[in-house]
Design a protein that fits this description.
Layout (H helix, E strand, L loop, with lengths): L1 E4 L12 E5 L3 H13 L4 E5 L2 H10 L4 E7 L10 H8 L4 E8 L3 H13 L4 E6 L4 H9 L23 H9 L3 E10 L5 E12 L3 E3 L5 H5 L3 H22 L6 E6 H4 L4 H11 L7 E6 L7 H13 L3 E7 L5 H7 L4 E4 L1 H7 L3 H16 L3 E4 L5 H10 L3 E3 L7 E2 L3 H10 L6
Parallel strand pairs: 2-3, 2-4, 4-5, 5-6, 8-10, 10-11, 11-12, 12-13, 13-14, 14-15
Antiparallel strand pairs: 1-3, 7-8, 7-15, 7-16, 8-9
Helix pairs in contact: 2-3, 10-11, 13-14
The structure holds ligand C2E and magnesium ion (2 copies).
């Protein structure tokens, strides 16, 4: 392990950058270091094993803007890149680039590990190395090192919320339903929305469900949230209807909420109160919490169907019980998880699994929705695989209710639509 300063090199672009190269092969390490020096990287640290790299991170109060991490090590006793990924999550790293001669599938698994551990992975470099690509990657830096201080990376800078904060927010009505459009992949037309919870925090701005759903699910608050948002979406349906728009709305309910057999009648009664036809409503069953009372959940879903609601299996393909739920639950729709959509076009194996899921759902005569469509390539792949409906940032993010009508007018009005 050694460090060197290349401060006086010509290019200024990277002269403040601190990069670590973790590579056990001396020659390849020298090639990488030379390339980084020629780009004008200000500080380069070298590590020949994961242990060296961790020692550098632990001993270096300033952190690194980028770590180039070789995955395989010849010495089987040394900490390899995979193990390093596990250990490195404790430290402050601006970005991580994986380097390997591994085949596509193994590379993708290593990427998934890095994402799973919350590391700021920005890409991979196959050997032999493409230096232009390396330069492009150095510029991307999701967590730019903020000089000096404690080397530990906390993972999130946002405050954590207590039960009390959430209870107060519920009382004050700070949770709002936002709506993300869905689009028919066949006709390219608007096909409905998913209601998603947003916390309009008076100081922090709009917060996503990752800040509050899990805590609410561990408490009785989730039922209250579901009901508040449900009432809001019914009012929105009425508003849209008065503007001549019939909008189908899917809303999320955890299996914990739905194991209570009294919920379906309550949802039905509130829909009746608002004079909204339940045929416009679909419950998306989220699997984040597994129901302890399976029979209660089954009874609720059956009753919801009898009341005219659709039932969708959310995040399909991820939960361990997905296929079993497909056999046992009265579902009308599956919602393919965005983790499949994100990699299907690049990874043949994921693509095949997704095609099989779509074929299975079709055989069962279920509607198929794919979430997480981020580009035209994803949309085309899904359309060709037989998926009916798409949702994702490619079309729109979730928006407040009053923005939906103008969005639909603009979207459906486009003459040469790219789905
Ligand atoms: P979900 O039901 O699977 O909702 C889809 C999530 O994917 C949403 O995240 C949405 O913003 C995000 N998304 C949509 N398109 C894209 C895309 O193209 N790329 C990426 N990267 N993401 C996309 P959000 O709003 O953060 O919600 C996360 C989860 O929180 C939801 O996942 C759902 O499980 C839960 N949730 C949201 N609202 C509620 C609620 O009212 N009740 C309950 N029980 N759970 C909710
Ligand atoms: Mg959902
Ligand atoms: Mg989902």
């Amino acid at each position: 392990m050694r460090s060197l300063n290349t401060g006086l090199l010509a290019a200024r672009e990277f002269d403040q950058y601190r990069v670590m190269v973790l590579e056990d092969n001396e020659l390849q390490r020298a090639v990488l270091v030379a390339a980084l020096r020629s780009m004008g990287v200000g500080y380069i640290a070298e590590a020949s094993s994961g242990d060296d790299a961790i020692a550098l991170l632990a001993g270096d109060g300033q952190g690194f803007d980028t770590i180039l991490c070789d995955l395989q090590m010849e010495d089987s006793h040394a900490m390899d890149g995979i193990e390093f990924i596990r250990e490195a999550r404790e430290y402050r790293i601006g970005s991580l680039i994986l380097v390997s001669a591994l085949d596509e599938d193994l590379f993708a698994c290593a990427e998934m590990l890095a994402y799973g551990y919350g590391l700021p992975l920005i890409g991979r470099l196959s050997k032999p190395l493409n230096m232009q690509k390396l330069r492009e990657m150095l510029v991307i830096n999701p967590r730019r090192r903020v000089g000096g201080g404690d080397a530990k990376y906390s993972g999130t800078s946002s405050p954590t919320w207590t039960r009390n904060d959430l209870k107060q927010a519920l009382r004050r009505g700070e949770f709002r339903a936002h709506f993300q459009p869905k689009v028919s992949l066949i006709t390219g037309k608007f096909a409905g929305v998913e209601a998603l919870a947003r916390w309009h925090h008076p100081e922090e701005g709009i917060l996503l469900p990752s800040h509050f759903i899990a805590l609410m699910e561990s408490d009785d608050m989730i039922e209250e949230l579901t009901e508040q948002l449900y009432r809001q979406l019914l009012i929105s349906i009425k508003d849209w209807s008065s503007q001549g728009l019939q909008v189908r709305v899917a809303f999320n309910a955890s299996s914990l909420t739905l194991q209570d057999v009294l919920i379906p009648n309550r949802l039905r009664a509130i829909a009746d109160e608002h004079r909204v036809n339940t045929g416009l409503l679909t419950v998306e069953l989220t699997e984040s919490a597994i129901a302890q009372k399976f029979h209660g959940l089954l009874e609720s879903l059956t009753r919801l169907r009898m009341h005219g609601f659709g039932v969708s299996l959310d995040d399909f393909g991820t939960g361990y019980a997905s296929l079993q739920q497909l056999c046992n639950m009265p579902v009308t729709e599956v919602k393919i998880d965005r983790s499949f959509v994100a990699s299907a076009a690049q990874r043949p194996r994921t693509g095949l699994v997704m095609e099989a899921m779509i074929a299975l759902a079709k055989k069962l005569d279920l509607k198929i929705v794919a979430e997480g469509i981020e580009n035209a390539g994803d949309a085309e792949f899904l359309r060709a695989a037989g998926c009916d409906i798409g949702q994702g940032f490619h079309y729109s993010r979730a928006m407040p209710a009053d923005l939906l009508a103008p969005w639909i007018a603009a979207y459906d009005g486009m003459s040469h639509k790219v789905i």
